[in-house]
Automatic annotation (TrEMBL):
Organism, scientific name: Conyzicola nivalis
PANTHER family: HTH-TYPE TRANSCRIPTIONAL REGULATOR YBHD, NITROGEN ASSIMILATION TRANSCRIPTIONAL ACTIVATOR-RELATED
Protein's UniProt keywords contain Transcription regulation: yes
SUPFAM superfamilies: Periplasmic binding protein-like II, Winged helix' DNA-binding domain
Taxonomic placement: Bacteria, Bacillati, Actinomycetota, Actinomycetes, Micrococcales
Domain of life, source organism: Bacteria
Family: Belongs to the LysR transcriptional regulatory family.
Protein name: DNA-binding transcriptional LysR family regulator
GO molecular function per UniProt: DNA binding
Length: 308
């Protein structure tokens, strides 16, 4: 079997269509289809079957796709051992991240990578629904993803997952708000307010929805945006209240708005690094992940941020 042809099965399993596989690999759809047919003839078993206008892998195709993952991972591990023997961590590491994770991790990450001049970090901002981050691992070496407390992490048999930090979510209110002088609030205190929040199914929105279910009161949404600094500005100028991530927003809160912990509801988001197993085995990727883990230790469960 040709390793490259096996890799096509893996890409088809991850991406779902021949057209998307072709676009990702810089091939024409007809060339991809031809290679799949050649592999099918070689093994003598149907690997791909038609479903409507598209195709999907058969059980045999999925088995070989899984083998392709193990093969590519073993090759990456062998290359990593050789690079480690030579004392080299080199190459481009592509990272997909969302805006607030960039604020938390990218400055310190770049500082830590000063000791690894052979690694080129290529960072893209990609903010989306929490269920869509896993798919980005097909195109990036590392995906920084976040999910609400109530959501399970992606399937570990498909992706390597490295937990980085659980960031508490606090209620942000204007300085002149009647609750601003309190040390904390309950769901009942705030659920009836006008809320500035993120798009539907983003982690902060999922938490707000769970709060509303607990209270039995639908939230009154006055504005939605993915841009946390805009949410902060709207809160500071009295246009509503919001759930904001504590470590990300705390430094900007001084003399502008108050962050109040929720005492009767577990509100938080988990930030994790997602990777394909073969990409996780690359030495340069491992160096970047180690740096992310080291940077995550700055954020302590007690709410303090250290400079270490």
């Amino acid at each position: 079997m040709d390793v490259g042809q096996l890799a096509l099965l893996r890409e088809l399993a991850d991406r779902g269509s021949v057209t998307e596989v072709a676009a990702a690999l810089g091939k024409s759809p007809s060339a991809v289809s031809q290679q799949l047919k050649t592999l099918q003839r070689q093994v003598g078993v149907v690997l791909v079957e038609r479903v409507g206008r598209g195709v999907r892998l058969t059980d045999a195709g999925r088995a070989l796709a899984a083998s392709s993952v193990r093969i590519s991972t073993a090759m990456a591990e062998a290359e990593a051992v050789w690079n480690a023997y030579r004392g080299e961590a080199t190459g481009t590491v592509r990272v997909a991240t969302f805006f607030s994770a960039s604020e938390l991790f990218v400055p310190g990450l770049l500082t830590r990578l000063h000791d690894h001049p052979g690694i080129l970090l290529d960072v893209d901002d990609r903010d989306m629904s929490q269920d869509d981050f896993a798919a980005l691992a097909a195109d990036y070496d590392i995906v920084l993803a976040h999910r609400s407390d109530d959501a399970l992490p992606p399937e570990r048999s498909v992706l390597n997952i490295v937990p980085l930090v659980r960031e508490p979510l606090d209620v942000a209110v204007p300085l002149d708000h009647p609750l601003a002088d309190r040390p904390s609030v309950t769901v009942a205190d705030v659920i009836g307010e006008g809320w500035i929040t993120v798009p539907v199914d983003f982690p902060l929105d999922r938490v707000l929805t769970a709060m509303a279910v607990r209270a039995g009161v639908p939230p009154r949404i006055v504005y939605r945006t993915t841009h946390l600094p805009l949410i902060e500005n709207l809160v500071a100028t009295g246009h509503g209240i919001a759930l904001l991530p504590r470590y990300t927003s705390r430094e900007r809160a001084a003399d502008r708005y108050r962050l109040l912990p929720l005492v009767d509801f577990r509100a938080g988001r988990h930030i994790e690094a997602l990777m394909r197993p073969d990409r996780a085995a690359r030495l340069a990727v491992r160096v970047v992940v180690d740096a992310l883990v080291a940077e995550s230790r700055r954020y302590r469960p007690d709410g303090r941020v250290t400079n270490q």
